[in-house]
Amino acid sequence: MLKNLKENYGTFGFITTVWDYLQSYLLCCAVDDNGWSAWRNSSWFQDENSMLLDDLQLIPATNPMFKYVPKTCCYRKLDYLTRQLTDEYKNLPRCQNWQYGPPKFDNGAHNDAIYYGGCLGTIQAYIRRFSFWIALFGFSCLFFLITSTIIGCVTLCEIK
Predict the structure, then answer these.
(1) How many CB atoms lie within 10 A of CB 9?
(2) How far is CA 31 from CA 40, 75, 103, in A?
(3) What does the domain layout of the chain look like in residue ranges?
(4) What are the angstrom distances between the C-alpha of 61 and each of 50, 86, 101, 143, 160?
(5) What is the pLDDT along the chain (160 residues), one digit of tens a residue?
(6) pTM above 0.85, yes or no
(7) Is the dihedral of CA 103, 34, 112, 71 positive or negative?
C-alpha cells in the first residue's frame, strides 16, 4: 500500500482516484496513523512542488503554493442540514502547508485541518467491525447452496 502511494499516486489516474476516494470517504491520510510524511517521498510530491520551468528543482517550502499532502487528506466542511460532507475544505492552506506542525513536521502543534488517522488502520477497523456479518452472510449462502443441491438430488432420485 505504501509503495503504491509513493510510486503511483498522481501518475496513474485510476490509482489516484482510488486513493482520493479512500482518503475522502474514510477520513484518513496516507497509509499509517500520522503518516503524512510518506507523501514527501512520493512522485506526487515531486510533481506538485516542482518549479514551473525546472522540474528538478522544488519551489521553496515557504511558498504558500507548496503542498505537503493532497487535498483529500484535509477535513471537509459538514452541511449541518443534511449531515453530509461538502466539497468545501475546512482550511486547505493550513492542511497542506502549516508552519507550526503537521504536515510540515512530524510533531508540533495540533493541526485540526488534517486527518491524523491512516487509511490502513481505518480499513482494518471497518473489516473487524463487519467481519461477523460478512462471515454470517457467506455461511448462509453456503448453507443455502448445499441444502438446495441436496434437495435437488433427492427430488431427481425420486423422479427416476
Answers:
(1) 22
(2) 13, 17, 14
(3) 2-117, 129-160
(4) 11, 29, 13, 60, 82
(5) 889 998 899 888 899 999 999 999 999 999 998 888 889 888 899 888 887 667 678 888 878 888 999 999 999 999 999 989 899 999 999 999 888 877 877 777 888 899 999 999 999 999 999 999 999 999 999 999 999 999 999 999 998 7
(6) no
(7) positive
DSSP strand pairing (84-89 vs 76-79) = antiparallel
